[in-house]
Amino acid sequence: MAERDGGESTLTVLLAGGVNLAIALMKLFAGLATGSAALLSEAAHSVADTFTEVLLLTALRRSGRPADRRHPFGYGKERYFWSLLAAVSIFASGAMFAFYEGFRTVFGPQQEQSNVLVGHVVLAVAFVLESVSWTQAVRQVLREARAEERTVRAYLRYSDDPTSKTVLFEDSAALVGLVIAFAGLGLHQLTGSSVWDGVASLAIGVLLAVVAYLLGRTNRGLLIGRQADPRLVRRIRDRLAAVPEVEQVVDLLTMLTGTDSVLLCARLDFDDALGAADLERACVRIDGELRAEFTDLDEIFLEPVPRNDPELRARVLARYGDILDG
Question: What are phi and psi of 268, to 5 degrees?
Fold first, then answer.
């Protein structure tokens, strides 16, 4: 909740946004001064990143609104929607411009280079500034991965908060893009051929397209309705199986409805000896125990079902195979 209300995620996004805006202006000045396609592409890259931070700030603000009558499960998925738009922004305003500049330079007339020193200085300063933002993003990802007892790779794969992942990916791409632009600028100076500058611009475009695709794929899965962390699902299943009144966990469905917010639907075969009142009290008690133990659970639905119902059994097997029998 602290992150949703303006904690470390907001700090990470604000820092990245301020850095990207300053860098975009410097790169634009250097690109116009030198005539470098790679520098202009990097300016477009930083502009795209700045738009991305604005969208991420919107995601953080709007996703924290409480549930209401029109949206009884809350607004948590707004974070995924705005993060998806951020990925589109990176591709549309960053990658496409870089491709345009690259093709124009490679297949157009030779471009003369001027004020090369200005370009090198701006790239060096931009690298230092981007490193500050990147360090903050890495620090947050490492801290959250340790808190979840995961490797960084596993955290980035299973995390339900796209904010820190987006900033980390775009800052990493920014550092790589600066190195590519520096190489293109230097090779143009050494060889006298602007083709190298164009190739660097194309490489920056490919880099941005890859980052946009990875972030878009992540947010698409979260918007569609991804299952909760498999470790959490297994712990919930084991906890339900240990309840005295429950003879078998027949089906278990989870869906992420936002960051640190999970919807749970459990179909349980209860002891047939239980009366209606006993069953009601058991469901209320189980609900309370699950909420106390698993704080990510936002909504819980418990459905008493017979374990041998053939239609239900077929649906479970079609979805999971025999995993719930293990």
Answer: -125, 140
Whether residue 204 contacts residue 42, with contact meaning beta carbons closer than 8 Å, is answered with yes
Cβ-proximal residues to 274 (8 Å cutoff; 6+ apart), any chain: 245, 282
DSSP 227: P
Residue 140 is classified by DSSP as H
Residue where a domain stops, chosen among 224, 256, 282:
224
Length of the chain: 326
Q: What residues make up the domain containing 291?
A: 230-325
> What is the full DSSP assignment across 217-264?
HHHHHHHH-PPPPHHHHHHHHHHHHT-TTEEEEEEEEEEEEETTEEEE
The H or E element spanning position 210 is: helix 195-224
Domain assignment present for 3: no
Of the residues 205, 224, 243, the one at which a domain ends: 224
Residue 178: closest CA among 139, 106, 142, 125: 125
Model confidence, pTM? 0.78
Residues 44, 45, 49, 55, CA torsion sign: positive
Q: How far is CA 325 from the centre of its chain?
A: 33
Instruction: Check if the beta carbon of residue 59 is closer than 8 Å to that of residue 5.
Output: no
Tell me the pLDDT tens digit for each residue of 125-181: 889 888 988 888 898 889 888 988 888 888 888 888 888 788 888 889 889 999 999
Residue type, 15: L
The amino acid sitting at 241 is: A
| CB neighbour burial string for 197-213, b if at least 16 within 10 angstroms, e if fewer | bbbbbbbbbebbbebbe
Q: Name the DSSP class of 268.
A: E
User: Is there a single domain that holds both residue 87 and residue 211?
Assistant: yes
Residue 37's region, left for phi above 0, alpha for psi from -120 to 50, else beta, is alpha
How far apart are alpha carbons 302 and 223 in whole angstroms?
Answer: 24
